[in-house]
Each structure stands twice: as C-alpha cells, then as structure tokens.
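Deliverable D2.4 — example input (structure tokens):
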C-alpha cells in the first residue's frame, strides 16, 4: 500500500479540475447526463494513468496520494471522481496481476497512458455484488477464436466512456470456472442499455451492459479458477477499493461544508441584523461537521500509509461513510428550506453522499467481518 511516489506538493491539477467540474455538476445531475468533458479533462491532465507502473512509463502514485486526488475531484463532481476511482483501481490491479501475460499488461498500461478507460463489470440483476458469493449468470463459451460472452451486468459505472470492461463470468464447462474476461466495449454483440436513474450520483453513467455472444480473443481470459479458489482477498485491492471510496464521499462532505459556510456568512436575517455565522449555535454545529470531516481525513490517510487488515479497512470505509452522511445531514438541518432547494447544491450533496453505504463492503458485511475477527477463534 505504501509503494509509489507522492505528487509534488506544488502540483495540484486536481484542485483546478474540481473547480471546473463543479460548474457543470448541477446540470449533469438534473439531466442524468454523463460528463464526457470531465473525462476528457482527466485524460488531458494525465490523471487516468496515475497507477500505471513505472516499468511501463507511468507515475505509479501511492494510495495516500490517490485518496487526496479522488477526494479533491469529488468536491467538484463525485460522479467523475467515481469513474476515476474505478480506473485507478482496475489499472493497478491489472498491472500487479502476474497471472496476466506481461505483453498484455504492457498493452493495457500503454493504453491507460493514452487515456483509455477501464472498469470492472461484475454486478448482475440476480447475483447482486459478487462480494457476497454466488456464481455469475454471465457465461463464457469457447469459440474457435477465443471466447463468447452472454449476460447482463448492471451498475457499470462510466459505461458511456469505457474502452475496456473486466467482465466477471463463468465458463460453460462441465465444471465451471469463474474469472475476468477483458472485453473491448465496442465489441460486436455488446450493447449499453441506459437504465441508470438513481437519486444520487446521477451523472456516473452506471448503466446496464448487455452481452449477446460478444467476442473476446483467447488471451483476454485473464484468470480463470474454480469458484472456491477465489475466497482469498487481495489486501492491496481491498485497500484501494475501500479507501478511495472513503475519500470520495469525504470530498462530498467537504463540498457541503464549504457551501454551508458561505451560506452562514452571507445570510443576515432581518431580526438578527448580523450573519448567521456569528451565532454560537451555528458555530458549534459547524464544529461538529469539522470534527467528522477531520476524523475521516485522518483515518483515510493513516490507513493508506500503514499496514491495515481487510477487516479494519472495512471499518474505515463504514465509519467514513457514516461520518460523511452525518456531516451533510447536519448541514441540511441548519439551513431549513434553503438546503432542499434545487437551486442550491446542498440537496444534491445529500443525495450523492447517501450512496456511500452502497459500495462494497456494505455496513453489515464490514461489521460482521470485524466482529468475527475480534471474537473468533475462541
């Protein structure tokens, strides 16, 4: 978790991008449209290749730096930050997986340096998230030239802009194997069905991907195993998944805090004759928000620097999600009707931050893992 280098402290392209992205965030949220221009800006700034290894010419940044960048981007547009998170996670996972031929890893790394976008396609209507077990319904069938994929994936974040999909599927063999298939997102037999119409992260383009005999080359079956052989979790992958998500929603909480501060400084009720920011009650409430955000920032940074168990990482993500939600809800409670006006961003921040609990591990799974680790073996 501590490999890689930090970006120079004087270089902060993410901050400028966040300011740009915030200008269009409300429109994309209202329309449920995908922010293609934001992805283009990430590509131009080189942020889509941050986890490409140095051996392939990439910056290979470490986890702590990645959490700062994702959290900053999330202040401007959390949907864009989620797409970026998935890109960094998947690119790092591919680069570290020595089971994948070196030539293919190099090819994908060079593609990322050119700005190619990747995400995993794992969740299914019946299966839900594979993290809870079960075989995928998506089937991979052998062909003369490779594999043919048939199935439906849901919540495919970034789907309108993806170049590659890492499809979790089962083989049609007598004893099925499961694994990832590298699918070009313009392959024949693939169709994106625009189903994403959620309350939060509306601009994330997390649509369904429908595959009907979508073909992939033979060497694009990245790693196939018997289902029971997938029980061990990759600690590095768990760390990147949990902490980037924790950082993202902490960024949403910071955006809500910043709007609240501006509102309280500028709001002067006629009966008060001075800004709401001067009231001790408001100052105390904002102090609670500051405490929640500070706790998240320190938790995430510490976990990114240190060796942390999977159970602990699940708790960090759970606590960070709860804190971020509590911070935004506190801001909403202070503003009354102003907080829920569509003309103000606070109601959007509330809808976005509520998505924090959806990501793996969900609270019940994280708490169960932590409890088992504490109680067993007896």
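Example output (designed residues):
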């Amino acid at each position: 978790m501590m490999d890689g280098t930090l970006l120079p402290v004087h270089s902060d392209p993410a901050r400028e991008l966040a300011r740009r992205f915030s200008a269009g965030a409300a429109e994309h949220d209202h329309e449920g449209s995908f922010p293609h221009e934001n992805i283009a800006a990430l590509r131009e700034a080189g942020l889509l290749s941050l986890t490409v290894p140095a051996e392939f010419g990439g910056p290979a940044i470490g986890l702590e730096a990645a959490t700062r960048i994702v959290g900053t981007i999330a202040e401007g547009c959390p949907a864009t930050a989620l797409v970026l998170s998935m890109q960094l996670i998947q690119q790092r996972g591919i680069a570290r997986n020595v089971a994948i031929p070196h030539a293919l890893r190099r090819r994908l790394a060079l593609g990322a340096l050119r700005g190619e976008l990747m995400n995993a396609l794992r969740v299914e209507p019946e299966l839900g998230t594979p993290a809870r077990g079960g075989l995928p319904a998506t089937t991979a069938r052998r062909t003369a030239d490779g594999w043919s994929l048939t199935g439906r994936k849901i919540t495919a974040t970034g789907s309108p802009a993806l170049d590659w999909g890492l499809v979790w599927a089962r083989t049609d063999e007598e004893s099925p194997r499961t694994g990832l298939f590298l699918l070009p997102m313009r392959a024949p037999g693939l169709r994106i069905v625009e189903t994403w119409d959620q309350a939060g992260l509306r601009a994330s383009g997390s649509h369904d991907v429908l595959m009907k005999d979508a073909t992939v080359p033979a060497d694009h079956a990245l790693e196939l195993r018997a289902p029971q052989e997938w029980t061990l979790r990759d600690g590095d992958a768990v760390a990147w998944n949990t902490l980037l998500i924790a950082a993202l929603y902490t960024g949403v909480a910071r955006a809500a805090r910043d709007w609240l501060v501006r509102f309280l400084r500028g709001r002067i009720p006629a009966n008060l004759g001075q800004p709401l920011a001067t009231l001790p009650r408001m100052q105390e409430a904002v102090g609670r928000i500051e405490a929640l955000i500070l706790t998240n920032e320190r938790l995430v940074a510490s976990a990114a620097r240190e060796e942390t168990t999977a159970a602990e990482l699940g708790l960090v993500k759970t606590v960070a999600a709860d804190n971020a939600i509590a911070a935004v809800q506190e801001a909403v409670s202070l503003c009354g009707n102003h907080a829920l006006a569509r003309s103000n961003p606070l109601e959007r921040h509330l809808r976005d931050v509520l998505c924090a609990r959806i990501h793996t591990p969900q609270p019940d799974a994280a708490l169960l893992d932590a409890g088992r680790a504490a109680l067993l073996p007896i």
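The chain has three domains: 13-116, 119-226, 235-375.
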